[in-house]
Design a protein that fits this description.
3-stranded antiparallel sheet, Arc Repressor Mutant, subunit A, single chain, 3 helices
Length: 91
């Protein structure tokens, strides 16, 4: 995944915030997922197609994270979401 890779949430998820955490359900797969902390902010950013670089810039600014660490962590996070079918890449 390059910094220019654009990603977006898949449309078949139902999500709800509960005590600052995000709980999601995939109707298609019948599976539940949970995200907390910085991940909930990243999830908000994924509402519309956004690049890895744009997510990293926002997260680093809002949470005062080092850019290299932010990129490494967000890349891992997004790759996991893609692997689980919660996020997809877009052209």
């Amino acid at each position: 995944m390059s910094p220019e890779t654009r990603v977006v949430r898949v449309p078949d998820l139902i999500a709800s915030e509960m005590d600052g955490d995000l709980v999601m359900m995939s109707i298609e797969r019948g599976e539940y997922y949970g995200i907390s902390g910085v991940g909930t902010r990243a999830w908000e950013l994924l509402e519309h197609p956004v690049s890895l670089a744009e997510i990293v810039a926002t997260i680093c600014q809002e949470f005062e994270v080092d850019a290299a660490i932010g990129e490494q962590d967000m890349r891992k996070f997004l790759e996991e979401l893609i692997h689980r079918g919660l996020v997809q890449t877009v052209a």
